[in-house]
Amino acid sequence: MPMSTRYTPHMRPRPEVDTSVAVPLDVRLMHVASSVILVGLLVGAALTSLWAVTRLPTFALAGITVLGDVEHNNAVTLRANVVTRLSGNFFTTDLDRVQAAFQAVPWVRSASVAREFPNRLRVTLQEHSPVAFWGDDGESRMVNNYGEVFEANVGEVDDEKMPRLRGPDSQSQQVLAMYRALAPVFAGLNLPLESLELTGRGSWRARVAHGAVIELGRGSTAEVMVRMQRLGQTLVQATAKLGRKVAAIESADLRYDNGYALRLRGVSTTDVSTAR
């Protein structure tokens, strides 16, 4: 009669026997080292191939496309100022260095540089737009429409009647802003504003077209404009009472609390006695 085996809860299954063999540490380290060496060889081969490709004659710089403002520069001047400072090919040329080279060219305010595959560069230029001469007579510096001081050949300026501004270079934007605020007021008096200076003591001094000097005093644009508006509202009447025209003005001093001192050709008068 066949016998059967019954399983009961108290019976335990036989434990499994681990037949795997532990790999020695030195063998594992050898495998890791082999993998690292293999990866290094593959990366090195890829870099070598890439290095060789990037130096193919195909990628040697063939030219530079210049866009944007080129009113004061042409291919000859740009080549003379820039090309000799370039090095490398399409991939290795330092774009920051190229940008700096173009921005060192007279009249260039900014330059944007990009690569054009496979062997050209594209440069977009923005030139300075001068609005005033800067500094003493004879200087080759000017102020652009952003209030920035730059140096270039003043003989290339189209508008020789630009005003002359003076002051610390660090405050050129403030001087230009003051000029733009004052110029319409002077024009309304038929006294074209020829120059404006911010002195070392922080005082404003204007000179009109026929040479008269106007001492404007210290202060912000708003403060100076209050004194200029006082002059504008009374100058015509003041000169008429003295039998003169506005063009007869030789100097005016606005550094007073409630008025100004005025000097006309052949006449001198002071409206107030307390100066600032």
CATH homologous superfamily caption of the domain at 161-270: Cell division protein FtsQ/DivIB
Structural class: alpha/beta
DSSP strand (E) fraction? 25-35%
Q: Tell how many strands the DSSP assignment holds.
A: 13
Our Rg estimate from Cα atoms comes to 39 Å
Number of helices: 5
Please tell me about this protein's structure:
The protein is of the alpha/beta class. Among the domains are: 57-127, Ubiquitin-like (UB roll) (Roll); 161-270, Cell division protein FtsQ/DivIB (Rossmann fold, 3-Layer(aba) Sandwich), CATH 3.40.50.11690. The protein has 5 helices and 13 strands. The protein has helices at 25-54, 75-82, 95-103, 172-188, 221-241, and strands at 63-68, 108-116, 120-127, 130-134, 141-144, 149-151, 164-166, 193-198, 203-208, 213-218, 249-253, 261-264, 267-270. The protein has a 10-stranded mixed sheet with strand order 6-5-4-7-8-9-10-11-12-13, with helices on one face. A 3-stranded mixed sheet has the order 1-3-2, with helices on one face. Helix 4 runs parallel beside helix 5 (221-241). It is elongated, with a radius of gyration of 39 Å. Residues 1-5 and 272-276 have low confidence and may be disordered.
List keywords for this structure.
three-stranded mixed β-sheet, Rossmann fold, 13 strands, alpha/beta, ten-stranded mixed β-sheet, disordered C terminus
